[in-house]
Design brief:
6 helices, about 130 residues, globular, mainly alpha
Length: about 130
């Protein structure tokens, strides 16, 4: 019976540590999303969606708050229901990726860096293009 209690306590402790980790990652993701509101090169929507996912694993109350938030809630709902990305977010992301690649080109990055980063950015842009807009 004592051994069973130790196993149960250990399992509860692992679950608590895991939930705390998810909660911390949710807060960190939301912090990055908030930074994206004021910093033009940091995306907001992906970090909000990530925060909602982490919160759903670590803090149901925080997850509910995000889902009911007037700014963040619609993006989370559209992503969960349709895997949709706001058109404004797509356009901004495409513009920022183009500017970033252009800066690499103007700063004289090597052909390898331009090729690898260009292919990566094209893949991300293609994925976003494949997602519905709202």
């Amino acid at each position: 019976m004592i051994a069973d209690m130790n196993v149960c306590e250990a399992r509860a402790m692992r679950m608590s540590v895991g939930r705390t980790g998810f909660r911390l990652l949710a807060y960190l993701s939301l912090g990055l999303a908030l930074a994206g509101v004021v910093l033009p090169l940091v995306p907001t929507t992906p970090f909000v969606i990530l925060a909602a996912w982490f919160a759903s694993k670590g803090s149901p109350a925080f997850a509910r708050w995000l889902e009911q938030h007037p700014q963040f809630g619609p993006a989370i709902e559209q992503w969960r229901q349709r895997r949709a990305i706001p058109l404004k977010a797509k356009i901004l992301a495409w513009a920022m990726m183009s500017i970033s690649w252009g800066m690499l080109l103007m700063l004289g990055a090597s052909g390898l860096v331009l090729t690898i980063s260009g292919l990566f950015l094209l893949a991300v842009a293609g994925y976003m293009l494949s997602r519905p807009s709202y």
